[in-house]
Amino acid sequence: MQALIETIVTPLVDQPDAVKVDVKEEEHKIVYHLSVHPDDVGKVIGKNGRIAKAIRTVVYAAGSDSEKRIYLDIM
Fold it and tell me: Which InterPro entries does the record associate with it (predicted)?
């Protein structure tokens, strides 16, 4: 799932080296923390959060077969 998030986000940003995905797994959920360069945060979130919502939709759909709930936080 980390690779999927990085694959989606890397072409969107100007500084792809700063893209970092951390995973925090808990009992009933898996949380992915996406961090990008401060100048690229707006590009990942998009106008009115449209890009962030689209990324979350793809990630949630890819993890729908998992028993744990999946969350994506953009730092």
Answer: KH_dom-like_a/b, KH_sf_prok-type, KhpA
